[in-house]
Amino acid sequence: MDTVIRAEDLRKVYRGGTVAVDGVSFEVRRGEIFGILGPNGAGKTSTVEMLQGLRTRDAGRLDVLGLDPARDTARLRRRTGSQLQSSALPERLRVGEAVRLFARARRVAADVDATLDAWGLVELRRRAYGNLSGGQRQRLLLALALLGQPELVFLDELTTGLDPTARRDTWRLVRRVRDHGTTVVLVTHFMEEAEALCDRVAVVDRGRLVACDSPVALTAARGGPVRITFTADGHDPRHLLELAGVESVTVENGRATVHGRGGTAVPVAAALAARGAVPPDYRTTYPSLEDVFLALTGRALSEGEPS
Ligand SMILES: Nc1ncnc2c1ncn2[C@@H]1O[C@H](COP(=O)(O)OP(=O)(O)O)[C@@H](O)[C@H]1O
Ligand SMILES: [Mg+2]
After folding, report:
1. DSSP 1
2. What does the angle CA 8 – CA 31 – CA 115 come to, to the nearest 5 degrees?
3. Which pTM was predicted?
4. Which residue owns the Cα nearest ligand 1 atom 1?
5. What share of the chain is helix, strand, coil (3-state, %, to 5)?
6. For the structural domain made of 225-286, what CATH number should be given?
7. Which tens digits make up the pLDDT trace of 131-163?
8. What is the whole-number distance in angstroms between the Cα of residue 36 and the centre of ligand 1?
9. Main-chain phi, psi angles of 180, to 5 degrees
10. Which numbered atom of ligand 1 lies nearest the CA of 45?
11. What's the confidence (pLDDT) of residue 230?
């Protein structure tokens, strides 16, 4: 397997003594969307800034595309893309100009027309950055980050502040980036975003890595039981307890609730159907990364540090 980032025991302590990153290790594989998920203040931005050589690390070993970001910052910059903060562009800069300027600054040969076309920005070419919607801004920032088709791109809280539609549109674009072969490191505090987009996720809390795996593996191992509910009209569903993986069956007011390990939903449905029970409201709820975070830290993902 081709590893593009290897981080070992990364550490960042700010002046004043805040330990922002406290011995974090992980690997990012070529071609994946790798998520760094955690509440506000967890140390995500500090981590990706060290990966890009934008911030010095206080300890640890770091290999990014075979380079040390602290030493080979300029060389690394030519091979990676980075999303700008949305405040980084002047309000009056036009979309077409932004693409031209950034291509020149990054010294990459970029065809402005082709870039605008690829990102659906042709009609917005003369529009000032300040007059773009949130979703249009993110589209432009992504286009700029990906000028010259870098091998690796860093996206930090890309969809914060977007409405659900614009967020979903942005997710589609990020998948497209990955499908074109660019490895993506995506920082987010949105559990849904990590779940929807990431091939693997590093869950971080208070500067420490608490888990790292695919969303499916994380939720199966740490998320708690799968919950199935349905109306149990005229039939006692306790026979389901005989199925492997089913942990409990309760009935209240005619509604049955089954708890079980991952993978129990299909055998439970089959056992019901075999008895002629076809409830119209058979509903399965799988654990989410939010449940994983709660199980690992005892706190909700939305409870960041007080700001
Ligand atoms: N430049 C800085 N100086 C001092 N403390 C900082 C600085 N940047 C971040 N911090 C602190 O480091 C911790 C981690 O911050 P950050 O890496 O931005 O977390 P995240 O991106 O997960 O929200 C927080 O407690 C934050 O207040
Ligand atoms: Mg951050």
Report:
1. -
2. 120
3. 0.90
4. 14
5. 35, 25, 35
6. 3.30.70.980
7. 999 889 989 999 999 988 899 999 999 888 888
8. 15
9. -90, 5
10. 21
11. 96
CATH architecture of 3-220: 3-Layer(aba) Sandwich (3.40)
Q: Supply the DSSP string of 178-193, one letter for each residue.
A: HHTT-EEEEEES-HHH
- Closest ligand to Cα 37: 1
Backbone torsions φ then ψ of 198, nearest 5 degrees:
-90, 140
From CA 38, how far away is CA 19, in angstroms rounded?
16
Tokens of 257: 């609730």
- Of ligand 1's listed atoms, the one at least distance from the Cα of 38 is 22
Model confidence pLDDT, tens digit, residues 43-63: 999 999 999 999 999 999 999
Amino acid sitting at position 168? R
Ligand nearest to the CA of 41: 1
Q: Residue type for 17, please?
A: G
Q: Tokens for 77?
A: 């910059």
Nearest C-alpha neighbor of 80 from the set 176, 16, 161, 153: 153
The ranges assigned to domains in the chain are 3-220, 225-286
Strands 19-29 and 200-205: unpaired
Band of the pLDDT at 302, cuts 50, 70, 90?
A: confident
When computed from its CA atoms, the radius of gyration of the chain, rounded to whole angstroms, is: 23
Instruction: Give the closest residue (by CA) to ligand 1 atom 24.
Output: 41
Tallying the residues shown for the chain, one arrives at: 307
C-alpha–C-alpha distance, residues 282 and 288, integer Å: 19
pLDDT digits (tens, 9 = 90+) for 3-23: 999 999 999 999 999 999 999
pLDDT (tens digit per residue) in 183-200: 999 999 999 999 999 999
Q: Is the CB of 198 under 6 A from ligand 1?
A: no
Give Cα separations from 240 to 75, 106, 243, 277 (angstroms).
Answer: 60, 62, 6, 12
Other Cβ atoms less than 10 A from the Cβ of 91: the count is 10
